[in-house]
Design brief:
One of its GO terms (molecular function) is lipoyl(octanoyl) transferase activity. The protein has 358 residues and is of the alpha+beta class. The chain contains ten helices and 19 strands. It has two domains: 114 residues, no CATH class; 223 residues, Bira Bifunctional Protein, Domain 2 (BirA Bifunctional Protein, domain 2), CATH 3.30.930. Strands 8, 9, 13, 14, 15, 16, 17, 18 and 19 form a nine-stranded mixed β-sheet that branches. It starts with a strand and ends in a 10-residue tail after the last strand.
Amino acid sequence: MVTWYIYGNWDKLEKRLVTGFLSRSMLRACSSLRAVARFASEDIKRKTFVSANGLVVAWHPPSTFPFEHTKPIDLQALNPDKEEGPLKEGSLQQRPRAPVNAELKEIFYTTKHECRRAMLLTTRLSSIQIIRPGLVSYAQGLLLQEDYIKKVAESKDKPYSSNYLLCLEHSPVYTVGIRSKVYSDDEEKHLKSLGADFHRTSRGGLITFHGPGQLVVYPILDLRRFSPRRFGVRAYVDALEQAVIDCVSEDFNVSGVGRSRDNTGVWVGDNRKICAMGIAVKEGITSHGLAMNCNTDLRWFSHIVACGIHGAEATSLSRETGSDVSTDMVIPLFAARLSHVFDCSVDEASPVSHISNS
């Protein structure tokens, strides 16, 4: 176990103490017993240190530093450690910046308030299994989610948590989230007359369309156990969005990809939505998720105000790249991005037989 002190202006009160377990890379570095091992990324100056006695030091963390993983400390009680530590004030003054969050994750893992060895052992090694049911109706998708929610719930007392990523396509369907009170029976009949199903759901969000060529991802995760970091709902949605942003922008070289200030989901430019989000969380277990347009027939969206956002339009990876992008092409790339964001392995499970729509 290491103790990490954020050194700065010692007269200020915002200093925090973080305790955590060393990662494997840090253990290797400390095993050399050198006075200081330095860590840095390619684009920023070296600014993080670990001494031979396991003291990790950073200087003035930025506003994005994950303070939810810290707790206040007594400055007077810290003074003896400061004086006895191998890194003196003069050395610290030469490194005025703190590490980015990605570097912190390589240094130590923490829970919100304190390190618990049991949690480290039961969550750090957990993984997410990819399940590919193929093309299914929306009703069948709901049943699949229920089945895997039960599996996750049943694993709560096991050493390793079970977590799943349902990656599938739906037959044409319009779905309405719990935020929507519109869409009368006549409007519902009209949408059904187009050849699509219509469902009112328990997810968040407003109306959207699902259909062939759209990658629908339902993460069934126990947010309390599957990651070294505990995710709140907002942080969980942000993580999903980030995985999509990284996949679309870096794997498919689409420019202008990002979030909207006022709306969830992932956008290209100011008004082209490429991925919709709508999640549900019950007793810490997630369901529903995201829908990324790959080679979707975008004409289905012309019959609705998707997600209740006027002036916005739907786009797809195929449209943005000018080439045919299938869901099968996207799944492994997105899984890799999700693995990085969640700091958790994402692996293919045993093949699941196709479920017919009869």
